[in-house]
Amino acid sequence: MADTMGHSATTTRNTSVAIGIVLLAFAPQIFEFIWSIGTIFGWGSGPGPATVLISHATALFGGAPGAMLGSFAADAKKTLSSDVLLALIYSYPLIVVAILTLFMIIRAPQDYIGGIVLMAVALFALWASSDLHGMQGFKFGAGTAPRMFGGLLVALSAAIALTGLLSEGAGLSHYSWRGPLFVMAAIVFFALAIRPLGLVVTAFVSFLIAATGSHETRWIEAAIVGACLTLGCALLFPYVLGLPMPMFPRFLVQ
Amino acid sequence: MVDLFHNLGLGFGVVFQVSWWSPWWLFGLSLPISINILMCLIGALVGTLVGVLPGIGTVATVAMLLPITFGLPPVGALIMLAGIYYGAQYGGSTTSILVNIPGEATSVVTAIDGHQMAKQGRAGPALAIAAIGSFFAGCVATVLIAVLGAPLTKLALAFGPAEYFSLMVLGLIFAVVLAKGSVLKAIAMIVFGLLLSMVGSDIETGASRMAFNIPELADGLGFATVAMGVFGFAEIIRNLDAGAEMNRDLVQQKITGLMPTRKDLIDSAPAIGRGTILGSILGILPGGGAVIASFAAYTLEKKIARNPSRFGRGAIEGVASPESANNAAAQTSFIPLLTLGIPPNAVMALMVGAMTIHGIVPGPQVMQKQPDLVWGMIASMWIGNLMLIIINLPLVGIWVRLLRVPYRLMFPSIVIFCAIGIYSVNNAPVDVILAGVFGLVGYWLIKHDFEPAPLLLGMVLGPLMEENLRRALLISRGDWSVFVTRPLSAVLLAIAAALLVLTVLPVLRAKRDEVFTESEN
């Protein structure tokens, strides 16, 4: 009885891992789709969301299987579009891994998932370098080294994932959301605001955003330290060190 | 030998070079100042500060200060950055001994016996022995760099691309052997780093690789950006996980009597000697540097002690040896950089960055073409060590006061400083976001027990390796056997293979793990 319960527990766990890997398999396509939504509002350039959706869908469901069958025929490879290649090199292998995951007993989730994600990175790099020239005679092309290291990383990460199946090991460690979220928010705000708003405003606001990352922050204290730090930076970087940097918001200066 | 003195003389000449400074508020009067000594002092002070404060490491600091060196003369810039690295080795021990939190990864083992000594009211002697050991090790390492510099440079000039490639393979294998944790994971991290270094335009063909038509990626990922993300931001995020309020049982009573007793000195003298030798050797080897040196030195002391049970209860050898070892290693790790042009660890990789900012290509030719730079730096290390012993012993009270600054105020400040530092390298906001992304990557890597240090090493050596591999194969007309038919290259590869086999063997693996377990109990 206990045995079957334990088994069912791992199965549910495995399904969520497999779903995660499937999501990872489509991550570039999803990212490009979300990115393309911006074009509706006129941010950035590139194909609209509908075009992106259609081209990826045809690549995933039509083009790639066709190419797989057709690859036995000569010269079929050269005509493949990059979307089809993405499906072939990146998405399909990961989907295969996801399906396999369903039937595995994961003994060390930390290693297994670490290996799989690293493998995804390697496969993605293989795809990204697929448009580059390979070996030309004994001369290295631009794509030779990336493909070499990409292939090596696929093998190594597969081995890491395998150790996660074969030997007992650590489980997934706990991720907290507060620290990463607010520290990242502070960084992104800094990057976006430094040009238009200048160092003084940006540094102070970023300081407060970052300080939100800890639940122990006391606001008055943080504001005072933030103000002092801002003053220090405003004197140190542009004047003492001579690094050119906008100081005040653009609309105030003009 | 005559050469050696001549070179060191040249170096000290460079360091003591006096220039006249006439600020406007002195109305035409001039003051004699030595910029290089000033830089050395600043480096030592910043290094001590970084070493004392837990939560900010040397890699992040050097990355942060890279843009500052734009405006400095190259010698001064390198002297300052070097000072930060070995200064941090001094400062790290202060926190370890007084607070039981290592200020620096290299002082982890110092905390074991050092803090026990402090609890027994012997904080003064512990601090003094740590500083004296570091100073002795620093002096020996400086001489070692001076002695080994010239012959190694000659050897390096005989290297062809095949030898360089094999040497780098050996270096990376060393990095794997000396890294913590799984060998497989360490190799995977190196290859990941190699892959990251491929982003950007290809050196030979100019083709854009893996840049997705993003203009900011066309030049490749900045090494400082990645280092800052993986070592700076990731560290902060991880510390926040644990709760910002770290358990700091600061030794409150006033530190009285810095002077160690005669018995302390007799006990620790051989330990300092052993630590220095071990540290010097491990520092030259790529990959480990100061961290592994301190661990190994502690393990060695425990092994050869007549009464090992004293360790962990305030044995002075447990402070003397690792502290000497980490300082020796921090300095001897300059040897491969200065003679071969190959950075053995992440800090040295950033030094390469600083050199390239000033148009210096690291390698054997630097020592011949710019002897004042190399020897000035070497001479500055001795002077820096002298300054550090003063900074650390009589002024220890000031540094202790800094430790009272709570982490909840420190971490937002570090985030801001890092962001400004990254931004000012290229005046590019995108770099700041990239560093943030790599901070998340680093956080993920920590959560999955991947070591970030081999990743950075791979990233630095990537372009060098690719270039030499290409060149070697071009010269041999595509014949891969060139790596084993050239004797020097074959020897290097054989050592690399043997090392890798040895590490995987279960007996030695247990030994290797033993070195790293000290910190956990």
Layout of SSEs?
The complex is a heterodimer of chains A (254) and B (521).
Chain A: H1 2-25, H2 27-37, H3 49-70, H4 82-102, H5 109-128, H6 144-166, H7 178-211, H8 219-240, H9 250-253
Helix pairs in contact in A: 1-4, 1-5, 2-3, 3-4, 4-5, 5-6, 7-8
Chain B: H1 2-15, E1 19-21, E2 31-33, H2 35-52, H3 58-65, H4 74-99, H5 110-119, H6 123-157, H7 161-178, H8 183-197, E3 200-201, E4 208-209, H9 223-241, H10 262-284, H11 289-304, H12 317-332, H13 334-340, H14 346-357, H15 364-369, H16 371-392, H17 396-402, H18 407-426, H19 429-447, H20 452-475, H21 482-485, H22 487-504, H23 506-517
Antiparallel strand pairs in B: 1-2, 3-4
Helix pairs in contact in B: 1-16, 2-4, 2-16, 3-4, 3-9, 3-14, 3-18, 4-5, 4-6, 4-12, 4-14, 4-16, 5-6, 5-12, 6-10, 6-12, 6-13, 6-16, 7-8, 7-20, 7-22, 8-20, 9-18, 9-19, 9-20, 10-11, 10-12, 11-12, 18-19
Structure description:
The complex is a heterodimer of chains A (254) and B (521). Chain A is mainly alpha-helical and 254 residues long. The longest helix of chain A is centred in the last third of the chain and has 34 residues, at 178-211. Chain A is built from 9 helices and no strands. Chain A folds into 2 domains: 2-134 and 141-166, no CATH class; 178-253, no CATH class. The model of chain A is unreliable at 1-9 (pLDDT under 50). Chain B contains 23 helices and 4 strands. Chain B has one domain. In chain B, 59% of the residues are buried. Chain B has a two-stranded antiparallel ribbon.
